[in-house]
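Notes from the 1:1 (GR / supervisor)

We went over the backlog. Supervisor wanted to see one worked example end to end before approving the batch request, so GR pasted a single chain during the call. The sequence is below; no edits were made to it. Supervisor asked that the structure be written out right there so they could see what the output format looks like.
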Amino acid sequence: MRKTETYRQHHEELRAIAARIEALLDPATITANTHPVADAVRELFGKFSVHLAIEDNSLYPRAKALDNQNVRAVASRFETEMGGLSQRFDAYRKSWPGPLAIGRDPARFVEETRAVLDALRTRVAREETQLYDLIDAA
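Structure output shown during the call:
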């Protein structure tokens, strides 16, 4: 079993929830009923928050303590970058706290949600290929 298997499984779960959200990103559908997409977004960020906490408290400290300089450097870089991404996600959550906010401007919600999901997908892919693979090999 790979050292990063649990984190990779979290990423799979995040991708699955993101795909469910994307299937709901139609302004007309959202206008008719905001609850399904609001529930899915809440689920995504709940899971994402737990994943980040585990990475911050376990994965990154262990990676930065390894004897491999390359792993330490990549882990430090990713940890720094994640701060900006976390702020972006927090701003998104504050803009769209629930069904009422989403229903006020479904088109903008769709646009901002697609951008956040793209950022999440990019981050997950980079972690898996640039960090997790290094950790597993170390």
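Supervisor's comment: The domain at 5-137 is CATH 1.20.120 (Four Helix Bundle (Hemerythrin (Met), subunit A)).
Batch request approved.
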